């Protein structure tokens, strides 16, 4: 690894929150292969460290993530066409699968532009808060490509078919406020409030019944493909698991004792 390859992804753990910061601000935090590898290592911390009970995802500088760094995909007429599907299969698909399967809440602080795969990565987080000057762009159509990283799955479900088609086919910039009104994100705050608001939210989630929050994520994502009968059965099964958790016992005890619960995330 050369010195320029170091610290493309920063991690910091405090009060149960693992903050993951994409750190290529000079390239609007766009991805190359090394940055993917470093992000994969950061997610291992989220998956394996029991002290981590919430993840906060953000970007350094003036952008959240501009998607793929096209400097790594630049081709001339003389060169053979790259296999972009290989990049999707090797990096982006595993990333989205890990984020959505992670049994811990992920908060996303969108501090600037989220374009291409960067927009999909933001939407794959569980609660998205954007700066008022942030924006979302489905830029694939400008290159003759298809929304990937789950973009074609998240957008119709969050914004609706008509809006998703417009975003994908036209590549227009969608403001944070518009994304909020369309149901794509949870909240918009002033730029100077973004870091404090998202840290506050992440630290709150880190004190909550983490195991149960993971079950909620599983239920919500399963609902997209389940029938009503299948989802009712799943809710039954997940509720059974939740009812056996230490946090459920603590929550009920705290309720009857009229005190604040002290959840351990188990």
Automatic annotation (TrEMBL):
Pfam families tied to this protein: ECH_1
The entry's keywords: Isomerase, Lyase
Catalytic class of the enzyme: lyase
Keyword Transport (UniProt): no
InterPro entries, per database record: ClpP/crotonase-like_dom_sf, Enoyl-CoA_hydra/iso, Enoyl-CoA_hydra_C, PaaB1
UniProt EC number: 4.2.1.17
MF GO annotations: enoyl-CoA hydratase activity; isomerase activity
Signal peptide boundaries: none
Top-rank taxon: Bacteria
Family (UniProt): Belongs to the enoyl-CoA hydratase/isomerase family.
Name listed for the protein in its UniProt record: Oxepin-CoA-forming 1,2-epoxyphenylacetyl-CoA isomerase
Organism: Hafnia alvei ATCC 13337
């Amino acid at each position: 690894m050369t010195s320029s390859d170091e610290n493309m992804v920063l991690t910091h753990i405090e009060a149960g929150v693992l903050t993951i910061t994409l750190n290529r601000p000079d390239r609007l935090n766009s991805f190359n292969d090394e940055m993917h590898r470093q992000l994969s290592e950061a997610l291992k911390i989220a998956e394996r460290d029991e002290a981590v009970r919430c993840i906060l995802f953000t970007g350094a500088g003036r952008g959240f993530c501009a998607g793929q760094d096209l400097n790594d995909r630049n081709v001339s007429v003389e060169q053979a066409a790259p296999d972009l599907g290989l990049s999707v299969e090797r990096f982006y698909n595993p990333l989205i699968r890990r984020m959505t399967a992670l049994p811990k809440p992920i908060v996303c602080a969108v501090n600037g532009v989220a374009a291409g795969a960067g927009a999909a990565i933001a939407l794959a987080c569980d609660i998205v808060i954007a700066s008022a000057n942030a924006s979302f762009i489905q830029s694939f159509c400008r290159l003759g490509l298809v929304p990937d990283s789950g973009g074609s799955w998240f957008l119709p479900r969050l914004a609706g078919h008509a809006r998703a088609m417009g975003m994908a086919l036209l590549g227009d910039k969608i403001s944070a406020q518009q994304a909020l009104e369309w149901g794509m994100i949870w909240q918009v705050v002033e730029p100077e409030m973004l870091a404090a608001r998202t840290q506050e939210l992440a630290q709150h989630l880190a004190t909550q019944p983490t195991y149960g929050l993971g079950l909620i994520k599983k239920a919500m994502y399963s609902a997209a493909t389940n029938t009503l009968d299948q989802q009712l059965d799943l809710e039954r099964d997940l509720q059974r698991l939740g009812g056996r958790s230490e946090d459920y016992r603590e929550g009920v005890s705290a309720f009857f004792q009229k005190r604040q619960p002290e959840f351990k995330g188990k």
